[in-house]
TrEMBL record:
One MF term in the entry's GO annotations: hydrolase activity
Record's protein name: Alpha glucuronidase N-terminal domain-containing protein
Residues in coiled coil: none
Keywords per UniProt: Hydrolase, Membrane, Transmembrane, Transmembrane helix
Organism expressing this protein natively: Trichomonas vaginalis (strain ATCC PRA-98 / G3)
Length: 1111
């Protein structure tokens, strides 16, 4: 790689063309036979068209067999340029160019077949401010004069000789791709533009190079790989078999002979892990450091030796993937051998050499070591979130920095994949993914000029694409994105991730939306029509991210002035309106990009639902209001999802409008969450509403009936099943967040019995629970002792058998769960239940009984029932026999029954406590002692009643047995103590294995004694962002004002491809050699300095003073 771009201080401008005047210049290009080497004429035509765009003058364009008259612009290796100077580049296949003046102000633009065309573009970009940002933003400024510096002296060789930008705006637009210096075959580069670089065969090649139909393993077993089980592969050849080698070589030569203009011949195993384990291949594998990549490279080397005599310029490219990804020892590739790396799992949020992600760090190590094995490396890299392309992906820095890093190691080919695609009926292309146009522009520049300033090209794009005023805010957004990913180094960004990447915090997402909204305001004030369009579309990913983030939260539901259900305080309703105004629908094609918004990965199939969602939140849905006497209940479709979010008596609210009154059919032990069924209104009157949800495997119907005394909820659930579903096992649960004034003064009663205070066998610091087995009672009531407000629950025709309440000291609401503890349904069966709620006011018969003391003193105690746990398995074919059951002895009303003594860990109760209560465990840190509250019934025999333990990531498992002495004499609940967990991890797996000593075991909940001296990290720390409404417009970027990006120096992991056992010795010798050389250099320096002091100043002045354009 060679870059030279210098201007001497004594330089002056040479005018090539002046508006309204005839230029002294003529464009000359080489005379060739008709149809041969048409690229010289193309380059000349691009030069002529460029000058016309600048000054309006059409400079004559002729071949070099014409007489030289006046001054010439020599395009390519004209006879005149050869006569006047020695051309630096003569290899037509090399992507390189030179630009300089010779003789009497003649301008030379010369290079390879593509390189000369690139030279024309470079000249126009540098001296006429042409810009090729996007297809609709190719900028050709007009001027009175087109001047070029007299001392221009540019020589550039592309750092990456294969350059492919796999993205819609570049790949699907032929001429624009050329102007971005893309040279891959599938981007439409014809001979007029210098041809293209392409590969014979694709990535996975053995299926084509040794077709199984022609060489079936049954007939040619020795040609196929021996698998570990002794069978022959039907996919992979034996790489030590001569017949297989001969067949693959013959098919390669046959295919290349059809068209030998390719640059590469690919050799790669099929997309699986099949490879040979025969004695010969195993011996080679051992020889090459126990790496199958060595066996593969040995095979490819042999192919390269046979191919080179006939096709000396082809690179044989081996796939380094799966079992061939790790570089081998004791072997190097031939000069005409390279590899192809495809790091699909890398962290795309940071440059590869700066990421802390283990997989990415391993890839970097492999790259460094492969660079010592082969002379040609091609990388296929991914740099967007393909699943959610129009959400924020904080990774703009990654593509440019990666290319600067890769250029240090024999990486001479690069394919960067962004979102790319087109849709049919109607035909439209995918556009507007997050920062894709910036990434494509940066990629195009860094693939050619990795040593130039990355920051300059970013600012250059922002300034031209968005306009100076908007660019200031987009620049701040990019800087904030960079700050974010470096602030959270352990949170990787995935190219197949969710809608919001791990590093992103809520306040960053809001800040990003703020910056983009300010950018839009700025563009509206000073931007051009296209810049306004670009900024409006650029804002969508920030808005979409906030939209998704807010939809994942719970918001107070209200009824607006138009009678629509709205989410109070949320932005996503405004956002949905704006996105619809700009993107419209999946068929809409905008006038500039000729594309449609890539709002989701699978736009044709998933896009309609996304747009329907935007429309729903933009327009809102009608509130369904039921009234009867003093009672009023309000529900609606999404965002209410058929829940009741307001239930009032005499205008006094009785439920929380965030949690809402809701019935769910849970498929897990956990009943504390919500399932947002997409309920649709079937029918409603002033006192009745019927909702229905009908997916493929079940039908759920809810009806609400209101009279003067109560609200009745009727539920009908029909299980339809599916091919792989099996029986339904779950927990029908009604959850009601009661608003009775506060949660600190509570009574309850069963049926028409007396009011009593809750019983708390375990008192917790923050959240307490109580409940009861209903024992056949058909009603229960909850009341607040201070406000005298309450609620009566009735269920005369249903199977409700328990209730359980949650009292959160930081909330005024009392969360009530009631329903059937466990339900087992077969396909076609139907479950029905009915529960009525009657608000109570001015309850007078409350006894004078104090509320139990819920103070835990200096201790921090947490206690949660098992119904907070999501990852416990229901009964399944005789194993994992854990069933929720009501229990008279449980103070929370419900327990988990464990059938003991089952084989194969069938009686093991396992869970991740921290994952289920993240508000206690946090992300990391903390110190807890876990105690399981259990009851051991029907005891018999001797031995260990149970085993307990936990598995903690990156730590050895801990487990221990038990003793019968730990079981109390009476059949009551007691605690089983676990070992203290320091630096608690949310993915620690706790387990309890009950033996037959306990005929039955009941597990009520888990108790956590927290050592508060251990700090807990609940979230990534937040960056405090300053909202600045007055950012100054960006100054027009000038390249020489930007410092050259300093590549990060790396220390390669010790690796020696020729001898894996001498690394330590070699390192020691290198250190010794460096020490000796350093001493010599220091001595020479002082001698030279002493001699220099004796030389005259005039001698030093002989070196020309040079002004360098910093790149």
């Amino acid at each position: 790689m060679f870059h030279l771009f210098v201007l001497f201080v004594s330089s002056r401008n040479i005018t090539i063309s002046k508006r309204g005047q005839t230029s002294k210049y003529t464009i000359y290009y080489p005379k060739t036979e008709r149809g041969q080497q048409p690229w010289w004429r193309t380059a000349a035509r691009e030069m002529q068209a460029g000058i016309k765009n600048i000054t309006g003058e059409v400079i004559p364009m002729i071949t070099d067999d014409n007489k030289l008259e006046g001054k010439g612009i020599f395009i390519g290796p004209t006879k005149y340029s050869k006569e006047m100077t020695t051309l630096r580049f003569t290899d037509l296949g090399l992507d390189a160019y030179e630009i300089r003046f010779v003789g009497d102000e003649h301008l030379i633009i010369n290079g390879g077949s593509r390189g000369t065309i690139y030279g024309v573009y470079e000249l126009l970009e540098q001296y006429a401010k042409f810009r090729f940002y996007t297809t609709w933003m190719e900028i050709y400024p007009s001027a009175e004069e087109f001047n070029v510096d007299s001392e221009i002296n540019i020589s550039d060789v592309a750092a990456f000789q294969l350059r492919q930008m796999w993205s819609t705006d570049t790949t699907l637009n032929f001429y624009h791709g050329i102007r971005k210096r893309s040279n891959a075959g599938d981007q439409g580069l014809g001979d007029d533009y210098g041809g293209f670089r392409w590969s014979t065969f694709g990535v996975h090649t053995f299926w084509a190079q040794m077709p199984i139909k022609e060489y079936p393993p049954e007939k040619y077993p020795n040609m196929w790989a021996v698998l570990p089980n002794g069978e022959r592969s039907r996919s992979a050849p034996c790489l030590s078999n001569q017949e297989a080698f001969d067949v693959i070589l013959a098919n390669i030569l046959k295919e290349v002979a059809k068209d030998n203009t390719s640059s590469f011949i690919e050799v790669g195993h099929n997309d699986d892990f099949d490879h040979c384990h025969c004695d010969d291949c195993n011996a080679k594998k051992a020889k090459y450091g126990d790496r199958f990549s060595g066996v593969m490279l040995d095979f490819v080397n042999r192919l390269a030796d046979q191919i080179k005599p006939k096709y000396p310029n082809h690179i044989i490219k081996m796939l380094a993937y799966y079992m061939t990804e790790d570089p081998p020892f004791n072997i190097v590739g031939r000069d005409n051998v390279g590899i192809k790396l495809c790091p699909l799992g890398n962290d795309i949020g940071r440059p590869v050499n700066e990421s802390k992600d283990p997989y990415t760090m391993k890839f970097t190590e492999k790259l460094v070591n492969w660079s010592k094995v082969v002379k040609h490396i091609q990388i296929y890299e991914y740099y967007t979130n393909f699943n959610y392309p129009m959400h924020i992906t904080p990774n703009h820095l990654m593509i440019g920095k990666n290319l600067q890093y890769y250029a240090q190691f024999h990486v001479d080919g690069f394919i960067g994949e962004d979102t790319m695609g087109w849709l049919k009926n109607p035909t439209r292309i995918i556009q507007h993914t997050h920062m894709t146009y910036l990434r494509q522009y940066i990629e195009s520049k860094m693939l050619f000029y990795p040593e130039r300033s990355l920051r300059y090209y970013e600012d250059d794009f922002l300034y031209g694409f968005y306009g100076a005023a908007a660019a200031a805010y987009v620049r701040r957004y990019l800087d904030a994105s960079t700050e974010l990913v470096y602030f959270r180094p352990d949170a990787m960004v995935n190219c197949l991730g969710g809608p919001i990447s791990r590093p992103q915090s809520d306040n960053f997402n809001y800040y990003a939306r703020y910056l983009w909204s300010e950018a839009v305001k700025a563009a509206m004030t000073t931007g051009t029509e296209k810049q306004i369009f670009n900024t409006l579309m650029g804002e969508i990913p920030a808005m979409n991210t906030v939209y998704t983030m807010e939809k994942g939260k719970s918001w107070p539901l209200i009824v607006d002035s138009k009678g629509r259900v709205r989410c109070k305080g949320a932005q996503f309703e405004e956002i949905a309106t704006k996105i619809l105004d700009r993107c419209h629908n999946i068929s809409y094609v905008d006038p500039y990009t000729k594309g449609t918004c890539a709002i989701i990965r699978f736009l044709d199939t998933e896009g309609p639902a996304v747009y329907a969602d935007y429309k729903l939140y933009s327009e809102g849905v009608p509130a369904i209001i039921l009234k009867s006497g003093k009672l009023k209940a309000i529900s609606g479709e999404e965002p209410a999802y058929g829940k009741v979010f307001s239930f009032t008596k005499n205008g006094e609210e009785y439920i929380d409008n965030v949690e809402c009154l809701d019935f769910c059919m849970f498929r897990t032990f956990k009943i504390t969450g919500h399932i947002n069924y997409n309920m649709k209104l079937i029918k409603n009157t002033d006192t009745y509403a019927h909702f229905k949800y009908d997916p493929s495997d079940y039908t759920l119907e809810k009806t609400y009936t209101l009279n003067d005394d109560k609200l009745t909820i009727n539920v009908k659930y029909r299980y339809k099943g599916c091919n792989t579903c099996g029986d339904f096992k779950g927990r029908p649960t009604l959850s009601v967040p009661l608003d009775l004034g506060d949660s600190k003064d509570v009574f309850y009663k069963l049926g028409d019995g007396p009011w009593v205070r809750p019983k708390f066998d375990v008192v917790a610091t923050f959240v307490n629970h109580f409940g009861h087995n209903l024992n056949g009672e058909k009603s229960f009531s909850i009341c607040n002792g201070r406000t005298r407000k309450g609620m009566r629950f009735e269920f005369t025709q249903s199977n409700v058998n328990y209730f359980s309440c949650c009292l959160n000291k930081s909330s005024k609401f009392i969360k009530v769960y009631t329903g059937q503890s466990y339900l087992h349904m077969r396909v076609g069966e139907t479950y029905e239940t009915s529960i009525s709620l009657s608000p109570l006011e001015n309850v007078l018969d409350l006894p004078q009984i104090d509320m139990p003391n819920l103070d835990t003193g200096d201790k921090t105690i947490h206690y949660y029932p098992m119904y907070y746990i999501n990852d416990i398995a229901f009964p399944n074919g005789g194993v994992n026999q854990h069933i929720p059951v009501v229990d008279d002895l449980s103070f929370v009303g419900i327990s988990s029954y464990v059938k003991t003594g089952l084989p194969d860990k069938g009686s093991m109760l396992s869970m991740c406590v921290g994952r289920n209560i993240p508000w206690v465990y946090g992300m990391h840190g903390g110190c807890f002692t876990l105690r399981m509250r259990v009851r051991c019934s029907e005891r018999s025999g001797d031995g260990y009643p149970w085993w307990i333990g936990y598995t903690k990531p990156n730590v050895s498992d801990w487990y221990t047995g038990s003793s019968k002495s730990q079981i109390p004499a009476e059949d009551n609940y007691f605690f089983i103590d676990y070992k203290q967990e320091q630096d608690a991890h949310p993915l620690t797996g706790m387990w309890l294995q009950a033996t037959a000593i306990c005929g039955s075991m009941y597990v009520e909940g888990f108790y956590l004694d927290q050592d508060t001296s251990w700090p807990i990290t609940f979230n990534y720390p937040y960056i405090n962002y300053t909202h600045n409404d007055n950012l100054k417009p960006m100054k027009e970027p000038v390249m020489k004002e930007y410092t050259t990006d300093q590549r990060t120096k790396i220390t390669p992991i010790p690796y020696e491809p020729n001898n894996s056992h001498k690394v330590g010795l070699i390192i020691g010798l290198c250190i010794l050699a460096i020490t000796i050389i350093s001493g010599i250099v220091v001595g020479v320096y002082f001698i030279h300095k002493k001699r220099s002091e004796n030389k005259s100043d005039t001698e030093n002045d002989r070196t020309p003073t040079m002004k360098s354009i910093i790149v």
